[in-house]
Design a protein that fits this description.
alpha/beta, 11 strands
Length: 372
C-alpha cells in the first residue's frame, strides 16, 4: 500500500476534548503540503471546538461545525469537511472514513475525565473502532497519538534505564481498577491497553500501515479556534500551577507515585511528528516513535519565568535553596524518531514554557480570571 499523498489524498483527523491542541497544531503543520482535502472529525463536547486546518486559497465545505470554527475558518481558508461524531467509542464511523486515504487518530480520554472503567473502555474501544473502520473502508495509513506512558510503568520512569520504542507498558486493567488508584495511573493504564490493542490489530492485519507517536509530557500554547472554560487543561495545568496558588507556596515536587519524570516536548513538535509520519514508507511491523526533547525542573522553570517575565515574580513559588533534589530518572532513545521520522530540531524548553505562560495569561484576561 502506498503512503498518504499530500497532493491528492484525503486525510481524516480525529480529536477529543482534551486533545484539540495537538489536532490544531497538526492541521497547521499540514500547511507544508499542497492543497490536500482534509475531512476532519471530532467528538462533540459542549464548549469545545473541532480541529481546524489552515491552507491558503482553498474553498471550505462545512457540515454542522462547532460555532467557534465558523469564525476561525472564515479567517483561515481551506478545503475542509467537518463530521461531528458524538462518541468515537459508539458512533457509526463509516461515513467519517469513507474515501479517506489516511487517518490521524488523536482522541483519548485524559486522567479523571470519567470513572476508571469508562476511561479504560473508551480508550481501547475508541482505538479499536477506528482501526476496524479504517480496515473496512480501505484506509491506507493510520497515525495514532499514543504516549510514552504506553511504553513503561510509572516505576520504570524513575529508574536509571533507557526507554525505547520496543517496550510495552506491563500494567493491567486490574491495576487501574483497584481501590484508591490515582487518576494518573488510570490514564497510564488506558494508554497502555490501547497501545496493546494496536499491536494485536496490526499482527492480525499486517497490510494496514500503522504508526504510533509516543510523546512525553506535552506543553505548549493552544491552537487558534480552540474553546476553553478555564486557562489550563491537561498537562498545561502543571505549567499554570507555577503562576497560581498561595504567594508563599513551595516549588512543586515530583511524587513518583503520581507523576512522571521531568521529560517533556512542545505540542508543536508533537504535531510535526504526526505529519512527518505520513511520509514514512509502509511497514509490516508497527512503526513507533518516541517524541521527547526537553528535561527541565520546576525550579529551573520558575527561575526562567522570573527573569523573562519579572512582573510575574509575585505569582511564582518561593525558591528557598532547600528544594529536594530530583531523583534519578530514565533516559529516552529517540534515535528512530530522528533517523526515520526526520524530527530533529525541537522547540527549546524555554520557548515552550514562555509561550505557554503567555497563552495562559491571554486566556486569563479573556475569561476575566481573578488570581491570588
Amino acid at each position: 500500500m502506498r503512503s498518504f499523498s499530500p497532493a491528492s489524498g484525503e486525510l481524516l483527523n480525529t480529536s477529543a476534548e482534551c486533545y484539540h491542541t495537538i489536532s490544531l497544531k497538526v492541521d497547521r503543520a499540514l500547511d507544508v503540503f499542497s492543497a490536500p482535502t482534509l475531512p476532519i472529525t471530532g467528538t462533540k463536547r459542549e464548549h469545545n471546538a473541532a480541529p481546524t486546518v489552515r491552507a491558503q486559497g482553498i474553498p471550505i465545505t462545512e457540515r454542522d461545525p462547532a460555532p467557534s470554527l465558523r469564525s476561525t475558518l472564515t479567517r483561515e481558508c481551506c478545503q475542509f469537511t467537518i463530521i461531528i461524531v458524538d462518541d468515537l467509542a459508539t458512533s457509526d464511523l463509516s461515513q467519517a472514513v469513507k474515501g479517506v486515504d489516511a487517518v490521524i487518530h488523536v482522541a483519548s480520554p485524559l486522567a479523571n475525565a470519567a470513572a476508571p472503567q469508562v476511561i479504560l473502555e473508551t480508550a481501547v474501544s475508541g482505538t479499536t473502532r477506528i482501526l476496524d473502520a479504517c480496515l473496512a473502508a480501505g484506509v491506507k495509513q493510520l497515525i495514532i497519538t499514543a504516549s510514552i506512558v504506553s511504553l513503561v510503568s510509572p516505576d520504570d520512569f524513575w529508574k536509571e534505564i533507557t526507554i525505547t520504542e520496543k517496550s510495552y507498558n506491563p500494567l493491567t486493567a486490574e491495576d487501574a481498577l483497584r481501590p484508591g488508584a490515582p487518576g494518573s495511573l488510570v490514564y497510564w493504564v488506558s494508554k497502555g491497553l490501547a497501545d496493546l490493542a494496536v499491536r494485536d490489530f496490526k499482527r492480525a492485519h499486517p497490510d494496514l500501515d500503522v504508526t504510533t507517536i509516543h510523546p512525553s509530557y506535552i506543553y505548549g500554547p493552544l491552537g487558534s479556534g480552540q474553546i476553553y472554560n478555564s486557562p489550563a487543561s491537561g498537562t498545561n495545568q502543571f505549567i499554570y500551577e507555577l503562576i497560581t496558588g498561595a504567594p508563599d507556596r513551595p516549588v512543586p515536587g515530583y511524587d513518583p507515585a503520581t507523576r512522571g519524570a521531568p521529560r517533556s516536548v512542545d505540542v508543536r513538535d508533537v504535531a510535526r511528528a504526526h505529519v512527518l509520519a505520513l511520509k514514512v514508507p509502509a511497514s509490516d511491523a508497527p512503526k513507533r516513535f518516541i517524541v521527547s526533547s526537553n528535561r527541565f525542573t520546576w525550579k529551573e522553570a520558575i527561575e526562567f519565568i522570573g527573569q523573562a517575565r519579572p512582573e510575574l515574580k509575585g505569582r511564582l513559588p518561593v525558591i528557598t535553596g532547600k528544594e529536594p533534589t530530583v531523583p534519578p530518572f530514565a533516559t529516552v532513545d529517540t534515535s528512530a524518531t530522528e533517523a526515520i521520522l526526520g524530527l530533529k530540531n525541537y522547540v527549546k524548553w524555554q520557548d515552550t514554557v514562555l509561550d505557554t505562560i503567555d497563552d495562559l495569561l491571554r486566556i486569563e484576561k479573556e475569561l476575566a480570571v481573578v488570581t491570588q
